């Protein structure tokens, strides 16, 4: 394991950040990520701007297809990982209850399990490193650790690109992203106290309310924190 992580660190350290397009850098990183996580049959990097997700790099068409399913619906592990800052491991896409509609369609594409890791905040960008497999239970603790290492480097690469060409709305984007995560955390806390559930179970209640009402996750969370009412409950 130590040797594997040493090789991963060496590969990431060899990625040239300066003087290259961000898409070129992230495509190199996502290929490194897929090699570092043997269970991953396809990998992608999602970035979120103004609460809309888009895939900036991918290795394996099934990753792009699964990402697009989530963008169409406005929810799913890659989007919600970026929005909430939480790691989402889907062990069995057909049985997972957090995103049933997405899971059904992803299963039809051949996706049986997935792992989405949010990079730490860098600049104004949030998103997720996504990994997909065609067999259930493909990802374990070692995969999570390796993906977290890569996700941290994704954050560095994005921050470097933004530092050289910073848009005027970067600060506003970062503030909105941080506020979104904050209100989701507050809403989870309310549900944990009200129903005596875990943080993951509280997040599932929020995502289900969002999906049933076709209202953005942040808006559902804001309504709960301001009124005490969970939409659709």
Low-confidence residue ranges: none
Kindly report the average pLDDT value: 88
User: For the CA atoms, what is the radius of gyration?
Assistant: 17 Å
Largest sheet: 5 strands, antiparallel
Question: What percent strand?
Answer: 5-15%
Number of helical stretches of at least 4 residues: 9
Strand order of the largest sheet: 2-1-5-4-3
Query: Tally of extended strands?
Result: 5
Q: What is the string of helix and strand elements?
A: HHEEHHEHEEHHHH
Global outline? globular
Q: What proportion of the residues is helical, as a percent range?
A: 55-70%
* Gap from first CA to last CA: 46 Å
Write the layout of secondary structure elements.
Elements: H1 2-13, H2 22-36, E1 42-49, E2 52-59, H3 61-73, H4 77-84, E3 88-90, H5 100-109, E4 113-117, E5 126-133, H6 141-164, H7 170-195, H8 199-213, H9 217-227
Helix pairs in contact: 1-2, 1-6, 2-6, 3-5, 7-8, 7-9, 8-9
Description:
With 233 residues, this protein is α+β, with helices and mostly antiparallel strands. It has 9 helices and 5 strands; from the N terminus they run H-H-E-E-H-H-E-H-E-E-H-H-H-H. A hairpin with a 2-residue loop joins strand 1 (42-49) and strand 2 (52-59). The longest helix is centred in the C-terminal third of the chain and has 26 residues, at 170-195. It is globular and about 50 Å long. The model has no long low-confidence stretch (mean pLDDT 88).
């Amino acid at each position: 394991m130590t040797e594997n992580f040493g090789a991963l660190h060496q590969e990431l350290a060899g990625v040239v950040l300066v003087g290259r397009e961000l898409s070129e850098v992230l495509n190199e990183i996502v290929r490194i990520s897929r090699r570092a996580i043997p269970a991953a049959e396809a990998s992608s990097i999602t970035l979120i701007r103004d609460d809309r997700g888009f895939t900036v790099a991918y290795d394996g068409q099934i990753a792009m297809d699964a990402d697009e399913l989530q963008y169409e619906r406005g929810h799913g592990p890659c989007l919600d990982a970026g929005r909430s800052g939480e790691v989402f491991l889907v062990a069995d896409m057909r049985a997972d209850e957090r995103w049933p509609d997405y899971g059904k369609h992803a299963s039809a594409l051949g996706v049986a399990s997935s792992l989405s890791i949010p990079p730490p905040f860098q600049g104004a960008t949030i998103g997720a490193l996504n990994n997909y497999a065609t067999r259930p239970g493909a990802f374990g603790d070692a995969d999570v650790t390796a993906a977290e290492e890569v996700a941290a480097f994704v954050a560095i690469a994005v921050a470097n690109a933004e530092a050289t060409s910073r848009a005027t709305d970067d600060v506003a984007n970062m503030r909105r992203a941080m506020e979104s995560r904050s209100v989701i955390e507050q809403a989870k806390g309310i549900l944990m106290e009200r129903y005596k559930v875990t943080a993951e179970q509280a997040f599932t209640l929020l995502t289900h309310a969002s999906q049933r009402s076709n209202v953005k996750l942040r808006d559902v969370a804001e309504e709960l924190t301001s009124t005490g009412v969970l939409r659709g409950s």
